[in-house]
Every structure is written in C-alpha cells, then in structure tokens.
Amino acid sequence: xxxxxxxxxxxxxPAVVLVHGLVVSSRYMTPTLSxxxxxxxxxxxxxxxxxxxxxxxxxxDVPGLARALDGWMEATGLGSAxxxxxxxxxxxxxxxxxxxxxxVERAVLQGPTMDPEARTLPRQAARLALDCLRxxxxxxxVELLDLLAAGPLRSLRTFFHAADDRIEKKLPALxxxxxxxxxxxxxxxxxxxxxEACGLLPDGRFVVVRGAAHAVNYNAPSALARHVExxxxxxx
Length: 236
Description:
One of its GO terms (molecular function) is hydrolase activity. This is Alpha/beta fold hydrolase. Keywords: Hydrolase. The chain is an alpha/beta fold. It has one domain: Rossmann fold (3-Layer(aba) Sandwich). It has 10 helices and 7 strands. The longest helix has 15 residues. The radius of gyration is 16 Å and the shape is globular.
C-alpha cells in the first residue's frame, strides 16, 4: 500500500494514521496531515484500489480493507496507533478495532457512515450532491481525480460493500476510546445519526465543528487537528 508521510516526521508520541473514505485517496487527507505533522508521526495510506495503491481484481469489502490496513501497519512497524477516519474510513477503522483491538490505541470517527436511514444509492447520491455545494471547489477536483484513478465500477462496488456493512453492530464492542467528530453542515451524516453512533460506544465522546460540511478533514483541517490533539492528550 502506498502512503503519504511527512518528509521530516516528528519524533515521539503515538503515531496517527489517517484513513480516507469512499472513492477518494490519501490526497483527500493531506490538509489534516499537514496540520498534525509538526507534532506527530502521521501517515495517510491509500486503501487498496484507491490512489497509488495496488488495484485488486475485485473491489474489497470493509473487512478486506481492514485486513489490508492491518497488514500495512504490520509491515510499517506500527504496533498500534491513533486512527482517524472520514466517512467510509470510519467503517474500516471500526472493523479493525473489532478484529484487532491492540492496533487501535484511540480512534477518531469523523462523519461515520452509513446512516441506517440512507443506505440506498439514490439517497446517498442526493446527500452527496448537497454536500458538494457546501465543500470548497478544490475538493470537487480532488474527488473527480480520485474517482478516475479508482474507476467508476470499483467505486460503485465499494459503495455497495459499505452499504452492506453494519457499523452500528460493531460500535458497542469497541474497547478503545473513540471521538466522534460531526460537521455542523454535513448532509451525508446528519447530527442525529452521528450522536446515535457515539451513544453506542462504551467510551465515546462527541464534538461538533461549526460551519463544516462532511469533509472536515479537508474543509476545516485545523479544527480537526486541534480536536485530535486534545483527544490524544485526554485522560482515559
């Protein structure tokens, strides 16, 4: 797996791994990576099928993506880390935390999908269209470039895998402390569902980023980085 890593990684402290969502790649996480890099060892991998990583013959489901992330962490020498995900990346992190709890020191789930009330393609497409109107124009270009790199068919199949995944059944079993971050103007993950997801966690905390849409990692990276830093420093 390909990963973006700062040229001059900061020493010490827990490593932070940024996990992107559906269709996009590590490029989508670079604004947050750059904010965390001065103080943290931070990595932003491309999940298999996306960005510069290998393209498996078939789109991987959420457990398959979690296994790939686990294998990459092992190969990179990361016994454990703080994992920060956006959108479908939250589903991958939840699966990894369930299957390999020692890997996940803490988790930040930013805009966790999928809202059980909107698992169909038409509903998600409608929410995505509204979100595009609320995101920076530069993000739309990033999403289009990453969609072309992944391919429409792989992206569509990955969507259906994500829609079949039931994150709400996994959250109650997660042992690690988890911070749920919600963008106030996120139409893809409404606050109702974000709070419900947080309430399912044994050790869940909730924060709202005012004025932010779905991609807080891109449209409000400084705010997200501050919340990640505070969460890492918080007492268990």
